[in-house]
Amino acid sequence: MPLRFKYNLQGLDPKEKASRNRKEDGSPDRWKTLRVRKGSGAQNRASKQSSATSRENADTATTSPGVPSVQHSTPGIPQSTSIDDILIDPVLRSPVPPRRMVDADVMTDPPQCIPDTTQPLSPPNLDFISGILGVEVPQQSGTVTWADGRRTVLPCVMSKGIDICEDTDVAMVRFLSEFPESKPTSNNVVHLQRDGLTRGQLQQSISEALRHNKPVIIRGSGSNSAPALDVEYLETNFGISPLMRVTIHDVAKRVMDFTHPHKNGTIQQFLDDIDDPSKIQCILDIPLSHVGLPPELQLLDHGLVYGWNQTTVDCPIKSGKVHPDNFTTKSWALLHQAGFVSYPHHDADGAITFVRIETGIKFWVVFRPKHVLSRTALQKAQMLFANFAKNREEIMLTWDAEVITLLDGDLLISSFQPAGQVHAVYTPNKSFATGGHLHHFGSLHLTEISRYIDAHKAQFLTNQVHGNALETFQRMTIALPRLSSSVELYHRALVGLCLMVINPDKYKASNNDQGYKIVESESTERAVAIATAIIHHFYKDTATAQRSYRSGDQSDPGELVSEEELSSCLRLFTSLTS
């Protein structure tokens, strides 16, 4: 017997019901194409279950016991209407393929993200202006409506009756506001619902996304109220002393000299000014080494887990030549006044960045090239942002972008962005966020290209200078001969790591004006020997490896490396007597 299809009018609003009833009175030809409205994931699954039951018992309409029935108040409309099979579009009569089930404990592929459509993509209240005009920002501040309807203030610093941000920060925020909000259907940003994934699934999904150069947004249940942003909150919850000396970034100084917006101050002084509408300031990189990643995500930091934790017997730390940034950049905090915009840039040293909003709001705008670019073309494309006003049209032709909304309150929201991710951030209300940097074996090809660009144009493309990464890369290389088989290695990512270890001078950031010199440590000799063995195993020499590595898609991690092949290559370095 052919499949039957029952269409229930309960889910339609009155106008749609009337339209359907008129179609029942008209010619059957008008029903050759039947369009089914898409609902939430739960409603779709319930509809499939209901249709299957209806085929077994055509006289009885059923609903899934896990989904409450929809009440309708229009009398006289039947609960369901039977439609003859010949009027159904052939696509709807096609057999439904079986769902692919994923074991919760053992997985070979990352889970497909099913968006939680019961949660709003934006907060119910789209007004981020009320309550801050004349309080956190000047009364004269302009406003802007973003592409999805959110309304925020624009940056404003008044000087002699003139907003000195009008031609710079205001223009940038207006530009950012034109890009669409990132949604769960995005091809460039991975959206995950924390409550629907196990720890292993979450880590694997994040690793997969970062390896393929895609930011990740994780949403889950959080606090229902935002704390007061004051000295007591920072000291009680994070141990941040009000007397701590910090470097403050000041917008008024940045307008005068974009490359030197800094001034000295303390946490107390910054908080004293946080509601001063005559200023827009922020503090970047407040060290929080004791915080770090949430427990369920800590194993993502391969630089720390494998590089540092598991190499100190093979290579003891004796010289004391270990840069403190290897640990202080693992976790930090950001403190912003309302109206601060960070221009498009990528983070230093090719690090993966994670961020969590503790209180406040941030609009995190991530950029992605419209087309696959060579190394040289990618560097030129990023340089377009160095002169936004002049290159705006070319930027629009070269880059796509999406706005990721990071909120506190009823949602706990975390985000990861890949190494070298070009991004801009706007903070329309005062905020405090925690985050950090990490390195991952699967993403080192992105780390390499980011550091390569920094070696040529860092003064234009990144906002902080760190000189620590080489020691971590050497430690990650030393870990390879004894690396757990559970860690996947990819060819281009592995070669990228080896090239950075063998040729460190080629990756020294061009904006490092503090006299930084690459200093050999106890890990250098062993790391270079291992990296050289890997290169010579796959290629004739380093020059050949470099030519091959630098061709093609620079965001491609390459093929999975055979564990047996790598073990054979590195057997010399597994002796317990050396």
Short description:
The chain has 578 residues and is α+β, with helices and mostly antiparallel strands.
How would you characterize the overall build of this protein?
- This protein is α+β, with helices and mostly antiparallel strands and 578 residues long.
- 30% of the residues lie in helices and 17% in strands.
- It contains 18 helices and 19 strands.
- The strands form five sheets. A nine-stranded mixed beta sheet has the order 7-8-17-14-19-12-11-9-10.
- α14 (469-479) packs across α15, α15 packs across α16 and α15 (491-502) crosses α17 (542-549).
- The N and C termini lie far apart (75 Å).
Radius of gyration: 28 Å
Number of helices: 18
Tell me the major beta sheet. 9 strands, mixed
Shape category:
globular
- Structural class call reads alpha+beta
Blueprint (SSEs and pairs):
Layout: E1 5-7, H1 14-25, H2 41-56, E2 81-83, H3 90-93, E3 143-145, E4 151-153, E5 158-159, E6 162-163, H4 169-177, E7 190-193, H5 199-211, E8 216-221, H6 231-238, E9 245-250, H7 251-256, E10 262-266, H8 267-272, E11 281-287, H9 302-308, H10 325-328, E12 332-336, E13 340-345, E14 352-359, E15 361-369, H11 375-383, H12 388-398, E16 399-407, E17 411-417, E18 423-427, E19 431-438, H13 444-461, H14 469-479, H15 491-502, H16 524-538, H17 542-549, H18 563-569
Parallel strand pairs: 7-8
Antiparallel strand pairs: 1-2, 3-4, 5-6, 8-17, 9-10, 9-11, 11-12, 12-19, 13-18, 14-17, 14-19, 15-16, 15-18
